[in-house]
Write a structure and sequence with these properties.
It is built from eight helices and eleven strands. The chain has 312 residues and is an alpha+beta fold.
Length: 312
């Protein structure tokens, strides 16, 4: 059986509970066979339920190796920005991303899908999606990666949505997302688990996107001025170019001690000496020193050098 043709009963047998909360547990955990999103459910139980579903997917043929989408959520919001409330279009699209919200109202279900462009609402009606797609959607957990094909529409309240006709489970999320009200608030965890911070905090995603745009703009500016971007060695015989304590390591094959660079200056200047008159590097620097709000052992530095010119 192809991964794209799974039914809800194929993927999630009857002994697996059904819930719109981010969990489904094997029978025996709850008398009713359903688990609600409450504080009494432990994280271990949540993970156990998700692993059970994951095992059912693997037993039924596994996940698809590829999935082709036609639009990002941002593309749809831009293209259909002027679509009035309550409008059904015949434009068929395919979207994919992580399921961040799931609401069920009997034969009608809603989901919020997040991709790299933003979010888009999934509108799942049993009448148009069919029993299999609607059943599969009802068994999804928050955090799952899904692909959906359908037509673009707006709800009566004007929410841009995709009326789902086909649904594919792309990957099971084995761990529940952080609490939807408090998010990932622990600063230590945010720093150590950046992937999770990016997943649940819009501010973190905005900072990451801004950094990418800044670095791209810097590269364009240097290229327009005739500079060449280079890469210089990270492992050195001796640390040079700055007054800082280095990280030391050992090269086993050569049996010599080496150091992670504390600056890119000297190697860039050697390139200028060699005839490359305009060079720059955006590279990682390592300094084995203290940590505070403005200092970190590993950071990115931009250095540029130009012959026949000064800072003016």
């Amino acid at each position: 059986m192809s991964p794209s043709t799974f039914s809800a009963t194929d993927l999630f047998p009857t002994e697996v509970s059904s819930s719109t909360s981010p969990v489904g547990l094997p029978s025996g955990h709850e008398r009713s066979g359903r688990v609600s999103e409450n504080r009494e459910t432990t994280e271990a139980e949540l993970i156990a339920g998700r692993r059970h579903k994951h095992g059912a997917v693997l037993a039924s043929g596994g996940y698809p190796a590829r999935f082709e989408r036609t639009h990002l959520s941002s593309d749809l919001h831009q293209e259909f920005a002027d679509l009035a409330p309550g409008i059904e279009t015949e434009v068929r699209v395919t979207v994919a991303g992580r399921l961040m919200l799931h609401r069920s109202f009997g034969k009608l279900q809603f989901g919020t899908l997040r991709d790299m462009g933003g979010t888009i609402q999934l509108f799942v009606e049993r009448r148009t999606a069919g029993e299999e797609a609607a059943g599969l959607f009802s068994e999804l957990d928050l955090g799952d990666w899904v692909g959906a094909t359908g037509t673009v529409m707006t709800t009566k309240k004007g929410e841009l949505s995709v009326r789902v006709e086909e649904l594919t489970l792309l990957q099971k999320s084995l761990r529940p997302l952080p609490d939807k009200w408090h998010g990932l608030s622990d600063v230590e965890q945010r720093r150590r688990r950046r992937y999770l911070d990016l997943m649940v905090n819009e501010e973190a995603r905005a900072v990451a996107r801004t950094r990418i745009r800044v670095v791209s703009a810097l590269r364009r500016q240097f290229e327009q001025r005739g500079f060449v971007e280079v890469e210089t060695p990270v492992l050195l015989h001796q640390p040079t170019g700055a007054n800082a304590r280095p990280f030391q390591t050992h090269h086993n094959a050569l049996d010599i001690d080496m150091f992670l660079r504390i600056a890119t200056e000297l190697h860039l200047k050697r390139l200028v000496v060699g005839g490359m008159e305009k060079v720059y590097e955006i590279g990682r620097i390592f300094r084995n020193e203290g940590i505070d709000a403005t200092h970190y052992p590993e950071f990115t530095m931009l250095e540029a050098y130009q012959a026949l010119a000064d800072y003016r």
